[in-house]
Design brief:
By secondary structure, the protein is an alpha+beta fold. It contains twelve helices and 40 strands. An eight-stranded mixed β-sheet has the order 33-34-36-35-37-38-39-40, sandwiched between helices. The radius of gyration is 25 Å and the shape is globular.
Length: 721
């Protein structure tokens, strides 16, 4: 540290680049040239796709070791890790919320996964009424495998007597489903190769879907998934296949489809067969609920052309959120017995904004709740299902609102609220009064020292004049003098909405004068179906051009300058990050593509690729090929260009984006760049797509990313660095 401080003539970024002067391991290259519709494309590192080749695998391992060695030299790294650890200690507990880990309400009891301050992994708790919560399941009790077990999902049956808990090993998403008997207080059954929680039929049986393999590198890993029925106590090998491509080719036409069986509520008249995939609109079937073991008689419930995004069944009624005749959203009511969405009753239309597609509308016995968003601002509405009158519900201040129902046949509704700097809370809503019931379930306690940020919303003209919503999370009281490191983050795929969620690590960024700007680019769903289609296939360039426009605007407004700006995107957001840096390498000092889709021309040849052809396209189609070529960050890397300092990340066990997608990008960039800035490839050898992590894994990953960004964007040393 003394040596750094004494070299006043050097910026921190220059010194760091001198420290990171060792050359990364050179990738073996066996080029492949192909001709697509008259256009020749050379893939210099096709051989890196062969993860069975020992030479290739050794290169990946050498890259991981080299990157760890280089990151260990960063003067910022340990200090940021220590700050993250201290911040974590402030929170005595954290209750996890995700689509597979929603707190379950059974009568007056609550079930949830909670992690204490001194723990790495969450445990399952039961909170009876107003009493203190009780630990009921520790996934690492008697675990001697050397890897931590993580609860990746759970589902409680109707009376709380049994709980289905999915346990995945650290870094993996596919795990084993265990049945916990509450009365016997022990595991009474299990089923292997399960991803999502099951749908309970009664106290003895449930529907689930099962994968054929657990090896994420196997090309058949995500193909031929089967929906099955399991009876507790019977051997899983005898489980009846209810819905699958092999059994029901007329209903499940593609082996890449995910057939899901859903029981809408207890004592339901119908069950749902959802043929899921990456498409916005899926074919969905429905059957009378036969508990006798007879074959189900499926008939069409929703067709793709109905453009229904979400649905709910309540007895004989079926509700759906459609964008067919109103691109901003429309909630419809039809019959479950003879569904006809073209003649369905319209019970709510978007008015000043769009009906949110972040979560489905929530149905209770007497009401339907939905969120309408205007840009990034949100309002909650309620429709009375007797007279269909609509009213706005006033709630505590929050940036994100999610209503969710305990059951569509019960009078109980929960409201999840959260903001960037305020802990998430789940409130009961008094349906008669139309107001929340305090104090609610706080997912973390309120702590001091995390209120050092301000949030600003802007609408930025893009390259074609379309205004793009931009969330700017900045340290309080900053001046617009261009001196601040800034991260531009974006996603822009599948119509996904980037929600405002509580993130206490933003306070650490603010402490170090870092601004985070979230570009709500086209391809996402913030402004409805037209916004999604504005960044889809042939219009996909709008996704990264919107991010570039936001970055340019932030410079013009004095928040930052190119020498202090980072571009970041994760998963399919790697397209945004990769194409922004390859199209405008001069605009960014740093690029962080995390577990990213970087080689779209080859994505359909990954285990998860066929399922995503509807979103991105296939090279077998001329127009799709042209679109995929334009999206491909790897192919767009050119020799001799001064690219930003880049930290590429990947997980060895990633089931969604296989290791070689970011790997090929890192190899090509290391070969091509002329900037002299580091290109590092961080591989979590026990990690996946970033979901099933221990606290330590998560903090180490964040510390590496933050430290790398600061090392390239900070001009002078500041304590504690």
């Amino acid at each position: 540290m003394k040596a750094i401080i004494s070299l006043n003539c050097l910026t921190v970024s220059l010194l760091v680049n001198l420290l990171l002067n060792a050359q990364p391991p050179k990738a073996p290259s066996i080029p492949v040239t192909e001709n697509f519709f008259g256009k020749e494309v050379t893939d210099r590192y096709r051989n890196l796709e062969n993860l069975d080749d020992s030479t290739v695998l050794n290169w990946y391992k050498a890259q991981a070791a080299y990157t760890e060695q280089q990151l260990s030299k960063l003067p910022f790294r340990q200090a940021i890790y220590d700050e993250l650890k201290e911040l974590d200690k402030k929170f005595s507990y954290k209750i996890t919320v995700s689509p597979s880990l929603l707190p379950a309400y059974i009568g007056n009891d609550i079930y949830y996964v909670k992690t204490m301050a001194d723990e790495q992994i969450g445990k399952l708790y039961h909170k009876p009424g107003k009493g203190n919560d009780i630990l009921i399941f520790d996934p690492n009790k008697n675990n001697s495998t050397g890897k931590m077990n993580v609860i990746s999902g759970f589902e409680v049956n109707a009376d709380g007597s049994k709980i289905a808990v999915i346990i995945a090993q650290q870094g993996n998403e596919v795990g084993r489903l265990f049945i916990l008997d509450r009365q016997q207080q022990k595991i009474v059954d299990s089923v292997e190769r399960v991803w999502d929680p099951p749908s309970w039929i009664d106290n003895r049986s449930f529907f689930y879907f099962q994968f054929p393999f657990v090896d994420v590198t196997n090309k058949g890993f995500l193909s031929n998934v089967e929906a099955k029925k399991h009876v507790i106590g019977e051997h899983p090998s005898s489980d009846m296949i209810v819905l699958s491509h092999k059994k029901n080719k007329d209903l499940v036409p593609d082996s890449a489809n995910f057939p899901l069986i859903i029981v809408p509520h207890e004592n339901a008249q119908y069950i749902i067969g959802h043929i899921a995939g990456s498409e916005q609109f899926n074919d969905v079937y429905i059957s009378r609920f036969e508990k006798t073991g007879n074959e189900l008689k499926w008939y069409p419930f929703i067709k793709k052309e109905d453009q229904v995004i979400f649905y709910e069944v309540q007895g004989d009624k079926a509700f759906g959120l459609s964008v067919k005749d109103n691109k901003k959203g429309r909630i419809l009511l039809t019959s479950a017995a003879s569904p006809d969405w073209s003649r369905a009753r319209v019970i709510a239309d978007a008015t000043k904004g769009v009906i949110s597609r972040l979560f489905p509308p929530a149905v209770t016995k007497d009401n339907l709740y939905y969120v309408e968003s205007s840009g990034i601002e949100q309002d909650l509405y309620r429709v009375n299902l007797k007279d269909f009158k609509r009213e706005k519900i006033k709630l505590p201040m929050a940036e994100t609102l999610v209503p969710y129902s305990i059951s569509p046949v019960k009078s109980a509704i929960k409201i999840f609220t959260t903001s960037r700097a305020h802990p998430s809370v789940i409130y009961d809503l008094d349906e008669k009064k139309g107001s929340v019931v305090e104090p609610g379930l706080w997912l973390t306690p309120m702590v001091e020292g995390i209120d050092n940020i301000d949030v600003e919303i802007a609408y930025v003209p893009s390259h074609d004049g379309v205004k793009v919503p931009l969330t700017i999370i900045k340290p309080k009281g900053i001046k617009k003098d261009g001196s601040h490191p800034l991260i531009v983050y974006g996603y822009g795929n599948y119509g996904f909405i980037e929600p405002a969620i509580f993130d206490p690590t933003l306070s650490i960024l603010a402490k170090h004068d870092v601004i985070k700007a979230i570009a709500h680019v086209r391809g996402g769903g913030e402004l409805g179906e037209e916004w999604r289609l504005g960044g889809f296939k042939s219009t996909k360039p709008n996704t990264w051009k919107d991010a570039i426009a936001c970055a340019e605007w932030l410079v013009k407004q004095g928040y930052t300058q190119p020498s202090k700006m980072a571009i970041m995107g994760a998963s399919a957001g790697g397209i945004l990050a990769g194409r922004a840096m390859t199209e405008r390498p001069d605009l960014f000092a740093v690029a962080i593509p995390q577990v990213g889709v970087m080689n779209t021309l080859r994505f359909e040849f990954t285990p998860n690729g066929p399922n995503h052809i509807p979103e991105f396209g296939t090279i077998k189609d001329k127009n799709d090929f042209s679109n995929l070529f334009e999206m491909d960050s790897y192919i767009h890397i050119k020799d001799g260009v001064k690219y930003p300092a880049t930290l590429v990340t990947a997980g060895l066990n990633d089931p969604r984006v296989i290791l070689w997608q970011p790997g090929k990008f890192a190899a090509r960039l290391q070969e091509a760049t002329a900037s002299g800035k580091p290109v590092l490839f961080r591989i979590d050898m026990e990690g996946g797509h970033g979901f099933i992590l221990s606290k330590e894994q998560d903090m180490r990953a964040k510390a590496d990313i933050f430290a790398f960004i600061l090392s390239q964007t900070t001009e002078k040393t500041k304590k504690p660095f």
